[in-house]
Design goal:
Low-confidence stretches: 1-22, 28-34, 234-239
Helix content: over 70%
Structural class: mainly alpha
Strand content: under 5%
Number of domains: 2
Largest sheet: none
Shape: elongated
Number of strands: 0
Order of helices and strands: HHHHHHHHHH
Radius of gyration: 26 Å
Distance between the termini: 56 Å
Amino acid sequence: MSLQVFPVYIAIDIVSLTVYTYTLYRNGVMAYMEDKETGRLEAFSDGVFAVAITLLVLNLKILPDLALTDGSFWNQLLNQLPTLVAFITSFATIGIMWINHHRLFSYIQRTDTGLMLLNLLLLLVVVFIPYPTALLAQQYALDPKMHDAALLYSGTMVLLAVCFNLLWRYATFHNRLIGKNADARAVASISRQYLGGPFLYLIAFGLAFISVPASIIFNLLLALFFAIPPRLPGIVQNS
């Protein structure tokens, strides 16, 4: 009697175990897709930000050997001040943009082709930043009255702010890529803060026509401003 029932029990156990395993797998996959769908995009973006911020240091030139022995060390270093200021400004800008990128993707939980293309556009501008930074430092060292490089630099920052807005607006449109636990008031608060970004950077662009140092300083202040997270209501985030 037991020999006949035993295989039935085994079959029931196997079926139960299969259903249970499938349920765990399905729930795990769904949770993974909800929490980690943007993982590859974020990892790729982090690498691009790291490369861009590292390339900035290539604009810093080592002082000539003579400056280390003839007493002109500080004068030579002072001549590189525009380069150092441009380096610090761009480093702060890229670093803070990376912080904001991370902040956005604590809300963005899913991806699609449109989001990936907009993210690539943003990264294109990010990796371009070392180039106008080098031109700005070079032109200002040669002739502080020239404004062309400062205009290119500030114009790049305007494009960067526009790209950030496009990325965020695309993701939040009808909450299509936002996590299900995101507070709508928190999303709206970020949207309001980012909306003013392009207009503020346009002010820096306008300042470049008048004063290159003022434009650089204003760009640096804007970078520090956007490092401050907006005042948000309570939100449940998956980090």
